[in-house]
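re: ur question from the group chat, yeah i did fold both. here u go
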Amino acid sequence: MLITTAAAAAMVTLAMHPRSRSAADAVGKGALNDLSSSWFLFSRTSDGTYRYPNGDVYKGRYKDDLRDGEGTYSYHNGDVYKGHWKDGLRNGEGTLNYNNGNVYKGHYKDDLQDGEGTFNDHNGSVYKGHFKAGYFDGFGTYKTTDYVYKGFFKRDKFDGEGSMKFSDINSVEDFYLGQWKEGTKNGEGTARYSNGDMYAGHWKDNRRDGEGSYYYHTGKVYKGHWQDNKKDGEGSLQYPNGDIYAGRWKDDKQVG
């Protein structure tokens, strides 16, 4: 990878696993509407409070014995959901406060975070954008102390067109714009480095790989093939004085 510091190296891990999930993320209609529990107030269509055998408590609106309308669900593990319900499931706008300090605020569909929303992680990271079936999925912005990613996600991973701006002063890379796949740079993209260098070309698993051009801050320009972050295969290197070497490369070295 181009990111050499420990903080920057954690980039992909954060993207792939930005948050831990709890029982409140996958509640289930049947378990939460188990009428074997005790009612404090019973009515088929009314406001009421309902305590469950596991210690969960729901206070809010019911319709036909199911949670329906505005209500608050307090989980025995400390998570608290406040928002809209439909047919016993979280549907519509709501806020889920996790027991570890994480907060989700946004849209739900069939008990899962789905639609536009914001996820604030207790470590300071923030995702704002589209969710699908409980995952970051679609277009969104993910901000951490080390970088800001703006682009497309698929099941919590950077996937599709996106840009990343690094804020870590120790990072080798300053900015990237291009294609991502399953959390890493894959496909065509352009990177700008903190020393003024720039690369435009193909990437594979966060490394320069395939055809690409590298513009050195010293004025040299390499155009050709790369493998595993090194010049490898046919390519040409032009020097600031106009001299050009064209030929084969291996492991960043001229071989003929």
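okk and heres the other one u asked abt
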Amino acid sequence: MEEYCDVIEYSGKPSDTLCTAGKWYTFIILLINNVLLLNLVIALLSDTYAKYEDKQLGLYYEVLVGNFPTMDYDDKFGSIACATAPLNLMVVPF
């Protein structure tokens, strides 16, 4: 595929130097934009984390309390599904 660069100097002749400078300029601008966008994403995630950092324990307990009604006795699994992690080992023999 042939590259297209139709940059003409004031003298009226095509200039390879201006084509190369334009490619480098475009590359640098795109690189700066990508770095700034990445910085924006990191700042947004940091702000969101800071908002919920002090509320994380309450949110965790909210999910646990919301799941309590689903922890019922099941014929397929027995009471192992109802017991929490350390207690389910004591329930297995019974």
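fwiw on the second one: Helices lie at 16-53, 56-67, 88-91. The chain has two domains: 1-51, 55-94. idk if thats what u expected
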